[in-house]
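Worked example (supplementary).
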Amino acid sequence: MHEFSITSRIVNCVLEEAKKHNARRVNEVHLVVGKLTFLGLEQVRFAYEMLVKNTILEDSKLHIEEKDGAVKCDRCGYAGDLRYEDDPVYHVPSPTLVCPKCEGAVNIVGGKECTIKRLKLVA
Ligand SMILES: [Zn+2]
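After joint prediction of all chains, the assembly is encoded as:
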């Protein structure tokens, strides 16, 4: 349950933040989830619903913004989206760490984050 542990960390973070601001309730939580986290957003939502029960986050709205992956190539300087290749087993495009320009190896520079972007607190 990858999603559950990550969502639980997020909820704890929000609770701490709310405490710092002496908030009585949290109305909205905006998350940014990088596509390279491979988190199932449905599972995140499901875990969230369970985790916020009986907390000041109960009934809050969860907004999830997906962020594309980004890579950088040291060889040719390419920076941008990843190259996707059709996975022959699952028939879904899966990201590769191959430079679309020079076929060299690229480094991931974005898309692995899962961060809280904004909170709406009620004091
Ligand atoms: Zn390259």
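Two points are worth noting when inspecting this output. The chain is about 25% helix and 35% strand. The CA atoms of residues 13 and 116 lie 9 Å apart.
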